[in-house]
Design goal:
It is a single chain. By secondary structure, the chain is an alpha/beta fold. It has a nine-stranded mixed sheet, sandwiched between helices. A three-stranded antiparallel sheet has the order 10-12-11. The protein has helices at about 5-10, 20-25, 30-35, 45-55, 55-70, 85-90, 120-135, 150-160, 180-190, 210-220, 235-245, 260-270, 275-285, 310-320, 320-335, and strands at about 75, 95-100, 110-115, 140-145, 165-170, 195, 220-225, 245-250, 270-275, 310, 340, 345-349. It contains 15 helices and twelve strands. It has three domains: about 1-65; about 105-285, Rossmann fold (3-Layer(aba) Sandwich); about 300-349, Orthogonal Bundle (Arc Repressor Mutant, subunit A), CATH 1.10.10.10.
Length: about 350
Amino acid sequence: MDTTFDLLTLAFVPGLSPRVARELAGRGPLAEALERPGEHADLLGVPAREAIRSGAARRLARAETCRAEALGVRIVGRDEPDYPPWLRRVYAPPAVLWVRGTLVAGEGERAVAVVGSRAATGLGLAFARTLARDLASAGLTVVSGLARGIDTAAHRGAIDGRGRTVAVLGSGLDRLYPAENAALADAVARDGALVSEFPLGTDPWKGNFPRRNRVIAGWVRAVVVVEAGRRSGALSTARAALDEGREVMAVPGHPAQPATEGTNSLLRDGAALVRGALDVLAELGLLPPAAEPVPVDEVLATLARGVPASVDEIQARCGLALPALLARLTELELGEAVARLPGALFVRR
């Protein structure tokens, strides 16, 4: 069996967390651990060892592979080249991801999460959509969670900008939540990806969403929280980003507005302030270098277009010695930057 199938098998071992799966894989070839689970009793409890020994976990993994193929879902193992590179670096990355759409190797290098409250204000929704559109237009992948509110606006904005967007779910890919975002999910998958670390058939239980937020934070270089109240789930994404050493940014809000209490707290604690896409690009070092200033010709600068000036007037303005001034005026005349008029007058074209 290949490594991805072995990793998928771990997903169906009861009680096996991503951390334990990582430690188990770090002890040597995973296939050997699955053949001799008793040698890893310090990591595997009795139910886990029995599920491996009896073959139950492998049978479930085979059935999952068939279901995924029927639904057009790809199962991507942690060791595959298009597994998100920044997510692979987190403390306990998911062993496998369920994917509808396409992943791009190296995509994590230029991905930013745009997240926020489900119960967002109209101003917050408009800002999130514009921000995501501008980031996508600049070539960044916009990652969010497909939830109502800011997440939905972020995905729509990235699509507006004709860019890539990735939606990370807190349920199986066949248990889309919220259901009203089905059309949006299809649009995301066409040019980006729908992703989950949960097997098909997993309902959107409340406890799944902190894990979903950890994947969002691990996928990207930075998390931008657009609008979040004091207890918003988006703040857990920001905390996960900080834990993994990623940038955290926030959009300021009015201090009397409860909908922005969480984002203002992030700014107070040191998050970078975001007023638009340029702030995000600058924080990530992705702005193009400033153009070199064009040197101003000291003679040409003394002349206004259509206003003739004598040699004496030009010399008084620029301070050049007369021989140097006459030579420069001749050069400008030959280059058609200035025109010579009767009476030894010059005018800028």
